[in-house]
Please model this.
Amino acid sequence: MRTTIQHPKEVIVMNGWLHHLLGDLQTKTEAQIKICNLWLGKFRASTYHPQIIVRVAAWLGLISIGLGLLGGIFGIVSLVK
Model:
């Protein structure tokens, strides 16, 4: 059954997977939402995504950044010596 959202700026719609992940939530509740647009928040949201490919891509991206930094450090050390 489809429901029309009367005030879309005041409503958050989530699927059962996220609802279960967040714990036992009430169907309707009042809450203050703070927008956080930092890279860490985006990464954490990606690691909790319901599609496995999004979670894998997020972790592979983080690993590649770490390996790139490690390679850069080794390159600089080899040039200094």
